[in-house]
Amino acid sequence: MDRRRFFAAAAATTAAASLPLLSAGVAQARPAADAAQEQKLTRLMLDALSRALDDPATAAVVEPHIQDIGFNWHPPVTDVENVDYIVAYAFGNRAPAAGGDPAKVLYEPGPVNEALADTIAAIRKQKDVPVFAQWEIARFLESKYGMDRVTSIEPVIAADGTITYLSTDGVAAQVVALRGTSGAAGVVGFRDHVKRCVQTTRDRGMLAFAPAGVEMPGDYDAESGQPWTRRRDLYLLHDMYAQFAVLRQKAITAAYPNA
User: Fold this and answer.
1) Contact between residue 67 and residue 42 where contact means Cβ atoms under 8 Å apart
2) The domain containing residue 51 runs over which residues?
3) Residue 95 and residue 158 in one domain
């Protein structure tokens, strides 16, 4: 086996050993054993990337980003008692039940967003705080739980009825516009989405964490109206693409702020 194949196989073995990072449904701090595995993976990836690029200096800059985006799916966490408000991000949807032009008829919230609403209800039993939830989740908080102090983050509807659904960043921007950035946000999101939800919330100036010990929904909806949210393998690629897009812009801005 040549050295490139050796390092690829070794990295794959280390990644397999850390698969709980990809399957853990509960937001919690990682144990020391995971940190040791990450250090081992870092060494393997740095060596393999340095050889592939023939450029150790560039490999040292790029590798941490590849490792974070590709192998770290844990958001930073805080105890529920530290949370001052909840920010909840939707995941997937269902085609309009009565049909019609999907550009002008709201999609149905779907079962994943109902599960996210259930998660919020469980958190509210621990601490009664205001909720800012994307509309797909807010509908269930209102209809299923009759929950008070819920602000629904709605899509943008143009004068001609055309609907523009908000991105994760668009939802975070609306929360800031509505309440500002004071206090600590407890972020609720789908298991494989929640890390990016926390990052996006922080990028908008909020102090954000996932609530520690809270299990985030992780079952995919094969009937979702968003194809990339139907299967885990497709969604992980989508989420990594989104993380890299944000990183790319930050890196370019940092390198050339006046460009």
Assistant:
1) yes
2) 3-71
3) yes
